[in-house]
Specification:
Layout: H1 12-15, H2 21-25, H3 34-53, H4 59-70, H5 77-100, E1 105-113, E2 122-130, E3 133-140, H6 154-167, E4 173-182, E5 188-195, H7 196-216, H8 225-228, H9 238-246, H10 259-268, H11 272-288, H12 310-319, H13 335-342, H14 344-351, H15 376-385
Parallel strand pairs: 3-4
Antiparallel strand pairs: 1-2, 2-3, 4-5
The structure holds iron/sulfur cluster (SF4).
């Protein structure tokens, strides 16, 4: 079983902000999800493909091992395409580094140790390109639900720190570039660069003291939508509950809320909806395990009728005189399924302009959201110009 660090790089955005969270989380089991398993499968394929592109494994070895991975539940053409894109990206970066520094080299799946600043802190970097001047870290993300930004990302910075500590005696490194490669989000790459001086200062002045608190479970709880999202204690955490319950202590004095006041409430209450869902999960799982929760019970949910046996249904309808052709409909598979089966690029090349993206419905988002603002007046002008 993989060993997990108490203060891991992947959880750094949480324990750096909310230092008591790391110890509190130990009371709850690590769980996995389909997305996490899919991500692990994609990472294995990426590593293998990148090793092949870099000339570290022979074609025969690559094909044999890829065929093994292809037997897995999550493997598909889209995943291979993403692995190829990643491998190409890493190879190009390696070549570029070797052009300016002939000793430059690339390491994949590298264990990096940042325990000098974070007790027992280590992690695994997907790809590190070691060269004079700029050390480069590339992190592959297979998810497409949330765009991950490299700028100010503490996970990337801790990898950068570990990589710097590992290689700075061999190379003359001035700065570290950190890139997130997220191919399923239209090939999004997000990069950030930090000088060695800034990185070491961040590690010494910010990370080190907070890691000390986190290791002992001390410091202030810091509940917020982003910080609590993946915390294993999120349903039972009292600090989060207290914060959400206190939000409405001060009622606005006017009889009617203004849109400004409604906006301010929504902003303050960003975590409420997720928190209530987490509470529902906690109460449901308690009841399902046989323990009572006052005021609540489980009931049977809605269900739709369905055929018990499709072959027997067809036979029965045919025997009753219905034409078999009337019993089936021909339906095109979805674009997402097509891309999984045949690869995103192959589908885009074949279909070209037959793939369209209708404009999304205007959706409310906080002002800090990265998407451009929807302007109704521009929309009207565009309609007018048609
Ligand atoms: S739920 Fe939020 S506030 Fe509570 S420990 Fe986890 S991160 Fe901290």
């Amino acid at each position: 079983m993989a060993k997990h660090a108490l203060l891991s790089a992947s959880g750094a955005h949480r324990w750096l902000e909310c230092t008591p969270s790391a110890l509190l989380e130990l009371q709850f089991p690590q769980s996995t999800s389909e997305y996490a398993e899919e991500g692990t499968a994609a990472h294995e394929l990426c590593e293998l493909t990148a090793r092949y592109f870099l000339g570290e494994v022979s074609e025969m070895d690559f094909e044999n091992r890829r065929d093994e991975l292809a037997k897995g539940h999550y493997y598909n053409a889209e995943m291979q395409e993403c692995a190829n894109d990643y491998a190409r990206f890493v190879t190009e970066k390696t070549k570029a580094a070797q052009e300016s520094c002939e000793d430059a080299f690339t390491e994949l799946e590298v264990r990096v140790d940042f325990s000098k600043y974070v007790k027992d802190g280590f992690g695994t970097g997907d790809c590190i390109i070691v060269a004079d001047k700029v050390l480069e870290i590339v992190d592959f993300k297979y998810g497409k639900g949330v765009r991950v930004e490299a700028t100010g990302n503490p996970q990337m910075r801790l990898y950068a720190l570990g990589a710097l500590l590992k290689y700075n005696t061999l190379f003359d490194i001035d700065s570290v570039r950190m890139t997130i490669f997220q191919p399923r989000l239209s090939g999004v790459q997000s990069s950030d660069e930090i000088t060695v001086k800034e990185l070491l200062e961040w590690a010494e002045k910010y990370v080190k003291p907070r890691a000390k608190l986190a290791y002992k479970g001390e410091g202030e709880f810091a509940p917020s939508e982003e910080v609590c999202k993946f915390c294993r204690a999120k349903a039972q955490c009292k600090a989060r509950a207290d914060k959400n319950l206190k939000l409405f202590d001060e009622a606005p004095d006017a009889m009617l809320l203004t849109p400004e006041e409604a906006g301010a409430i929504l902003e303050k209450a960003a975590d409420i909806q997720a928190w209530l869902t987490d509470l529902e999960g906690l109460v449901s799982s308690t009841l399902l395990s046989g323990q009572p929760v006052t005021g609540w019970k489980m009931v049977e949910g809605r269900s739709n009728r369905k055929f018990a046996d499709e072959l027997k249904v067809v036979e029965a309808m045919k025997s009753a005189g219905y034409d078999e052709s009337l019993l089936y409909e021909r339906k095109l598979i979805t674009l997402t399924q097509m891309e999984k089966d045949f690869g995103k690029k192959a589908v885009a090349e074949t279909l070209g302009e037959l793939i369209v993206k209708p404009q999304g419905k205007p959706t409310l988002a906080p002002a800090k959201d990265k998407r451009p603002e929807f302007k109704p007046e521009e929309q009207l002008l565009a309609e007018f110009d048609k």
